[in-house]
């Protein structure tokens, strides 16, 4: 019978690949968001059982999926940031294994856009 050295399987690299569930992309720095925009973002996240503390928030005006490889998000929600791979808004896209939803900037979300966003979020986050 072959013996396995006791520490050979103790530290597996997969342990360190913590996948962030949700990445939020906004086009302006957090400090420039108005209180009502932050409140709206909190409400959107609460609606899908998330909080601001449970997501990662990045500031970019334009982005592509490859630049977030280190974050390894399962879902990207972009509010006003432009996805280079697609101009499609309010649709659940699957790009390189990552779900992506692009919407208007938080301050531009009117009732119709909020309904479109909510429809897409329900599809993306259904359990």
What percent of residues adopt helix (DSSP H or I)? 10-25%
H/I helix tally: 2
Strand order of the largest sheet: 2-1-4-7-6
Radius of gyration: 18 Å
Known CATH architecture: 3-Layer(aba) Sandwich
Mind summarizing the main beta sheet? 5 strands, mixed
Structural class: alpha/beta
Q: Topology as H/E string?
A: EHEEEEEEH
Question: How far apart are the termini?
Answer: 46 Å
Q: Can you tell me the number of structural domains?
A: 1
Number of strands: 7
Uncertain regions spanning at least 5 consecutive residues: none
Q: Please state the average pLDDT score.
A: 86
Coarse morphology: globular
Tell me the CATH topology.
Uracil-DNA Glycosylase, subunit E
**Quick one: CATH superfamily?**
Uracil-DNA glycosylase-like domain
Amount of beta strand = 15-25%
What is the CATH domain class? Alpha Beta
What would your notes on this structure say?
This protein is an alpha/beta fold and 127 residues long. The protein has one domain (20-125): Uracil-DNA Glycosylase, subunit E (3-Layer(aba) Sandwich), CATH 3.40.470.10. It has helices at residues 35-47, 111-125, and strands spanning 22-26, 56-59, 62-63, 75-79, 82-83, 93-95, 98-103. The strands form two sheets. A five-stranded mixed β-sheet has the order 2-1-4-7-6, covered by helices on one side. The radius of gyration is 18 Å and the shape is globular. The model has no long low-confidence stretch (mean pLDDT 86).
């Amino acid at each position: 019978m072959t013996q396995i050295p006791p520490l050979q399987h103790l530290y597996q690299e997969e342990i360190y690949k913590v996948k962030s569930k949700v990445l939020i992309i906004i086009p302006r720095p957090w400090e420039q968001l108005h209180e009502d925009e932050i409140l709206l973002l909190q409400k959107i996240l609460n609606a899908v059982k998330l909080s601001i503390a449970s997501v990662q928030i990045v500031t970019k005006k334009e982005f592509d999926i490859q630049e977030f490889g280190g974050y390894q998000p399962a879902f990207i929600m972009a509010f006003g940031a432009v996805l280079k791979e697609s101009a499609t808004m309010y649709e659940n896209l699957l790009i390189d294994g990552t779900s992506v939803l692009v919407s208007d900037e938080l301050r531009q979300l009117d009732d119709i856009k909020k309904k479109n966003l909510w429809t897409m979020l329900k599809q993306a986050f259904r359990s």
